[in-house]
Design brief:
140 residues, mainly beta, IPT/TIG domain-containing protein, signal
């Protein structure tokens, strides 16, 4: 009979989030986004697509890039005007570690857009850094 060892993936996270990431690797996925810069959360991917529709495929040369969107089960959203290969390599249901790396200052009251998250897929070990909206707070 063979015995198997638990596989511990190597996770690359920003230095600001390394301590939180080590703590959260063993924790179950939760359902709340990180609230303070430098904090992280282990969660899963809920949806992957372009900015306009579900499904993400690399744009063909000469075609219009529809961008990238990714939604995590904890409510974190990532949006880009460009195709993001690390998101495309991910699958719905993959476990990820997401860390809040910046929050804009001086925003109009009630406009919370512009938070930026770095997310690492624990299966692929690929990371991406994306804002939570197409425009920063106070923008279009």
């Amino acid at each position: 009979m063979t015995t198997s060892r638990a596989f511990r993936p190597r996770v690359l996270v920003p230095a600001c989030c390394a301590l939180a990431a080590v703590t959260l690797l063993a924790a179950p996925a939760r359902s709340a986004p990180p609230k303070q810069v430098g904090t992280c959360d282990r969660t899963t991917i809920k949806l992957i697509g372009t900015r306009f529709e579900e499904g993400l495929v690399k744009p063909k040369p000469g075609s219009i890039d529809q961008g990238t969107s990714v939604i995590l089960t904890n409510g974190v959203v990532g949006i880009s005007y460009a195709f993001v290969p690390a998101v495309a390599a991910s699958k719905v249901g993959d476990s990820v570690m997401t860390c809040l790396i910046s929050v804009p200052k001086g925003c109009p009251k009630g406009d919370e857009r512009g938070r930026v998250y770095t997310t690492t897929n624990l299966r692929t070990q690929d990371s991406w850094t994306l804002p939570d909206a197409q425009h920063m707070c106070g923008g279009a």
